[in-house]
């Protein structure tokens, strides 16, 4: 009986819970994950947007009334200096506009769009409406959120358009309104970020970091509008000048027609040294402004938006990965040893040492990822500057009619339907390409850093797991053989198979050449395999490095038309060159100044002619025929330049109506096609003249 009672007691003890091993001095538990609650700023977002929309609408109506009223007082001639002149409210991308304000507004809109990708409430008016959506099906929730994001894409450009309007009209009233509006946006946004610096979106400080470009753009607009409103009358007179009155075009023509130095021949002593050649490589990637070249406004806006795209993409890449790695590294404990043991991985017999090793490797992962993101950001900044340099080079080439520098087939430098579409979407297209290219580039760089750190640096540092070096050690005879055979072929090709006689080169020892070709056939096959792998790696790395650039094609020259990014770029350049050619605008401005009565150029020429005639009459000197001949010759040269400049052909009316795509070759007129067109016109005119002559003959007595 005692034995049975003992067994029953043991069975009962097996299911009892005892707390004798828990002491009062228990170890502290791990800190739970920090939870960031949604924050409501003091300034309600919906109320602010309602007020600022009302204020913007009132400002737009006031400016519209002033423009409508003062339009009656606007001068009818181009030379009029009336202070009542008013510009079109949608002419904010014209070359005469202020680049800084347009770039800031476009950057403001893009920065707002970048934050919409992760924002729970895309529209400020819909914060309370998704309550019913949250209880709906997931598919319905996603579709409703998508609709709100689509609406937000159209809402925020309308919200910030009054800032563009205030700058475009170039009036002191508009500058005052722009100062008030931009200052309101800046103060409210800064107030909201001070009230709620941390948000639950992705990372607690993501919203604050993502709003820094918006704050910078708004601060720039505040300073810009304030300076323009203070110096209103003087600055307004400068900006009220038409585009053709700009001194840029005359300066460009002076630099273009300036006589070059005659001693252009270079001697061997003038050749750059090795150090200068090395320094020339980094200089070619640094954009330096040119005094006689003005960067087009649309391309400047595209470059600035691409810079902001680099910032926002880098921010997203960092905040989506690095905080997660911090959480993983903080949660590593002794259980990781059992987890690795289940996969057959034994790092050490001591579990604490396993924890230290895994923590160290996780830290290395974070370092590799940050290095990859930093390198990708630097590469894209360098490529952006290189793109700006190539933009300038391409524009100068197209201005001179060198179409082959950009295109591989005959093209007409004139606006077209695809060109207009590409010109409109160039800024957004470039920002999207830069963002996607930076993401892919970061992943590739991260993989490369992982291979470098975990297969080379760490094994060498700890003297174990030398897998790469063991593979190289086992295969070194094959590598040495390949190197020796390749070197042998190069040496024999230089000293045995080529002979020089009388300054010419020819083959030598043909029998030995043919025999060596046969003997090294298999070795060259292996070398070709290595070259093919190297070619694939180099091509992939080159395309990945240049994936964010749209000014070069990643395809072959004959397949450039299938590269959508490069196609967008080339079509937009055609529109840009056809509308902002400095030579065309310089000559048009000169001709209009001559035609307008009281124009500055016409007045100077008329005064000079009257003065010279009066001087000649008083002194009795006859007019110099050589001077008149030079004047006539220069005018004929000007006419010949305007007629035969390849990049200006698309601007001539008769060319647009009569010429075909076959009559030009990259902007250069085809003389044969012009003769054929003249012959066809003459043949068409002959039948029309024959009946008239017959009628005349019949009518004679």
From TrEMBL:
Gene Ontology biological-process annotations: vitamin A import into cell
Keyword NAD appears in the UniProt entry: no
Coiled-coil stretches: none
An example Gene Ontology CC term for this record: plasma membrane
InterPro entries for this protein: STRA6-like (IPR026612)
Residue spans crossing the bilayer: 46-66, 101-119, 147-166, 173-191, 203-228, 299-322, 360-384, 443-462, 474-492, 513-534
GO molecular function, one term: retinol binding
Signal peptide stretch: none
The entry's keywords: Cell membrane, Membrane, Receptor, Retinol-binding, Transmembrane, Transmembrane helix, Transport, Vitamin A
Intracellular or extracellular location(s): Cell membrane
Bias-annotated ranges (Polar residues): 660-670
UniProt-annotated stretches for the region Disordered: 660-701
Membrane topology: Multi-pass membrane protein
Compositionally biased tracts (Low complexity): 679-691
Keyword Cell membrane in annotation: yes
Name of the protein this chain belongs to: Receptor for retinol uptake STRA6
């Amino acid at each position: 009986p005692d034995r049975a009672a003992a067994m029953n007691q043991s069975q009962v003890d097996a299911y009892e819970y005892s707390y004798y091993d828990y002491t009062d001095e228990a170890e502290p538990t791990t800190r739970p994950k920090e939870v960031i609650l949604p924050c409501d700023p003091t300034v309600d977002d919906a109320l602010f947007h309602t007020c600022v929309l009302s204020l913007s609408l009132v400002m737009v109506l006031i400016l519209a009334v002033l423009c409508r009223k003062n339009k009656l007082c606007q001068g009818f001639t181009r030379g009029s200096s009336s202070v009542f002149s008013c510009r079109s409210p949608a002419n904010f991308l014209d070359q005469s506009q202020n680049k800084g304000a347009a770039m800031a507004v476009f950057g403001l809109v893009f920065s707002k769009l970048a934050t919409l990708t992760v924002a729970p409430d895309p529209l400020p008016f819909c914060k309370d409406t998704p309550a019913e959506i949250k209880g709906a099906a997931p598919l319905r929730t996603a579709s409703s959120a998508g609709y709100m994001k689509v609406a937000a894409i159209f809402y925020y450009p309308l919200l910030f358009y009054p800032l563009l309007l205030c700058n475009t009209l170039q009036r002191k009233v508009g500058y005052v309104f722009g100062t008030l509006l931009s200052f309101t946006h800046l103060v409210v946004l800064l107030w909201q970020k001070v009230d709620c610096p941390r948000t639950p979106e992705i990372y607690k400080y993501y919203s604050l970091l993502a709003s820094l470009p918006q704050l910078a753009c708004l601060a720039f607009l505040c300073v810009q509008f304030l300076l323009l409103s203070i110096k209103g009358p003087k600055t307004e007179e400068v900006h009220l000048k038409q585009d053709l009155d700009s001194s840029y075009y005359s300066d460009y023509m002076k630099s273009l027609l300036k006589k070059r130095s005659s001693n252009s021949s270079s001697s061997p002593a003038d050749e750059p040294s090795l150090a200068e050649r090395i320094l020339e490589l980094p200089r070619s990637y640094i954009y330096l402004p040119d005094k006689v070249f003005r960067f087009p406004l649309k391309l400047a806006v595209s470059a600035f938006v691409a810079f902001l795209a680099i910032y926002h993409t880098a921010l997203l890449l960092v905040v989506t990965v690095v905080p997660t790695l911090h959480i993983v590294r903080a949660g590593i404990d002794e259980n990781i040893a059992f987890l690795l043991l289940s996969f057959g991985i034994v790092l050490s017999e001591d579990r604490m040492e396993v924890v230290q090793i895994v923590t160290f490797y996780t830290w290395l992962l974070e370092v590799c990822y940050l290095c990859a993101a930093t390198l990708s950001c630097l590469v894209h900044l360098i490529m952006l500057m290189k793109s700006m340099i190539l933009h300038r080079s391409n524009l100068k080439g197209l201005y001179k009619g060198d179409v082959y520098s950009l295109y591989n087939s005959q093209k007409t430098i004139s606006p077209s339907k695809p060109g207009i579409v590409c010109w409109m979407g160039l800024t957004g297209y470039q920002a999207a390409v830069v963002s996607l290219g930076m993401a892919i580039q970061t992943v590739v760089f991260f993989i490369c850093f992982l291979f470098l750190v975990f297969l080379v640096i760490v094994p060498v540092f700890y003297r174990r797991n030398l897998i790469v070096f063991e593979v190289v050690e086992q295969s070194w005879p094959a590598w040495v053989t390949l190197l020796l055979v390749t070197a042998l072929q190069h040496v024999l090709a230089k000293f045995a198979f080529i002979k020089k006689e009388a300054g010419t080169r020819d083959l030598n020892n043909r029998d030995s050449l043919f025999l060596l070709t046969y003997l090294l056939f298999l070795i060259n096959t292996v070398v070709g395999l290595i070259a093919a792998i190297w070619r694939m790696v180099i091509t992939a790395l080159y395309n990945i490095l240049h994936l964010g650039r749209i000014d070069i094609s990643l395809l072959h020259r004959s397949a450039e038309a299938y590269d959508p990014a490069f196609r967008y770029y080339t079509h937009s350049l055609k529109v840009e060159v056809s509308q902002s050619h400095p030579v065309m605008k310089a000559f048009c401005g000169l001709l209009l100044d001559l035609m307008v009565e009281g124009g500055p150029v016409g007045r100077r020429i008329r005064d000079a002619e009257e003065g010279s005639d009066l001087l000649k009459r008083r002194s009795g000197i006859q007019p110099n025929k050589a001077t008149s001949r030079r004047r006539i010759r220069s005018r004929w040269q000007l006419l010949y330049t305007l007629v035969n400049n390849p990049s200006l052909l698309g601007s001539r009316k008769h060319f647009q109506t009569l010429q075909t795509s076959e009559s030009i070759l990259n902007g250069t007129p085809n003389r044969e096609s012009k003769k054929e067109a003249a012959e066809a016109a003459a043949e068409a005119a002959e039948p029309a003249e024959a009946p008239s002559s017959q009628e005349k003959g019949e009518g004679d007595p």
